[in-house]
Amino acid sequence: MKKLRVKVPATTANLGAGFDTFGLALTLYNEFEVEEHDGVVIETIPEDPFLQNPENNLFVQVLKYSCEKRGKTFHGAKVRQITNIPVARGLGSSATAIVAGILVSSAVSNVELTDERFFETAYRFEPHPDNLLPAWKGGFITALKAGQKTYYQKVNFPEDLKAVVVVPDFKLSTEEARKVLPEKIPLKDGIFNLQRASLFISALVNGRYDLLKVAMEDRFHQPYRKRLIPAFDDVISAAYDSGAVGASLSGAGPTILALATENFEKIGSFMVEAFRQAGVSAEYMVLDIDREGAKLEIVE
Ligand code: HSE
Question: Which fold has domain 4-155+289-298?
Fold first, then answer.
């Protein structure tokens, strides 16, 4: 096997009302370089002893699984992993490892990567197409899983909207953030989200950014998850006060996303300040939308 490199974008899921449905790829990337090797050797940048352990390394686990699925023994790999996406912050960091593992395995085994093959492996590691799909395909995607099949569509995302992501300095696992969700949702809340998610897509298509604030309201997950995120409401208000056109929790959190056409630095600093007032330090990044998704190249 030659040396392969895969670059996979960060993703922000849900975008408010589109819980477990909408996902958007962002221009922040994790990179995975891999070559054949006897035994597993993992170098991580930045240094991360946890990820250097093959048992904890999702990318290696996906390679191993895919290899064994083809009836072969996994002998090892030499991996160099560059992590730019903050871990356990709601920016799809695990999805990048899964997508990278699948792309490498499919390139090595020379089989066409169909949706069916992709999801058969991907869902063993993570059940969220709203992160997996934009990480793989890029852009803004609306997705659903029905039985064994996943249906999805990429929807054009406006060129002039950027994402300001505000990342607080504490981790929140998706598992923890799903535990606080109720089993049942009242019909009126179902209608509330259905109307807003539909409005979100229509507003994007028609360029009506003035509607995004209402369209990104949510009653499925944010009202429950915000208990885990100090100053959630204040950070969302800070986004709107400083000129954002939309704001929501990013995926399962704790990162908060704002969408805007201008004033990006101001929005980021206002949101960081709202976190700071609650005693939480945070950093912001201004990102574009990644439209192409994961990229695999042969290095040598
Ligand atoms: N839609 C999922 C959730 C994304 O919000 O739990 C998890 O990354």
Answer: Ribosomal Protein S5; domain 2 (3.30.230)
Report whether the peptide linkage leading into residue 186 is cis, meaning its omega lies within 30 degrees of zero. Answer: no
Q: How far is residue 286's CA from residue 267's CA, in Å, rounded to a whole number?
A: 10
What residue ranges do the domains of the chain occupy?
Answer: 4-155+289-298, 162-287
Cα of 75 vs centre of ligand 1, distance in Å, is 33
Residue from 26, 221, 248, 255 to probe ligand 1 pocket by mutation (most atoms less than 8 Å from CB): 221
Q: What is the pLDDT along the chain (300 residues), one digit of tens a residue?
A: 689 999 999 999 999 999 999 999 999 999 999 999 999 999 999 999 999 999 999 999 999 999 899 888 899 999 999 999 999 999 999 999 999 999 999 999 988 999 999 999 999 999 999 999 999 999 999 999 999 899 999 999 999 999 999 999 999 999 999 999 999 999 999 999 999 999 999 999 999 999 999 999 999 999 999 999 999 999 999 999 999 999 999 999 999 999 999 999 999 999 999 999 999 999 999 999 999 999 999 997
Query: Greatest CA separation found in the chain?
Result: 57
Domain 162-287 grouped into CATH 3.30.70.890: yes
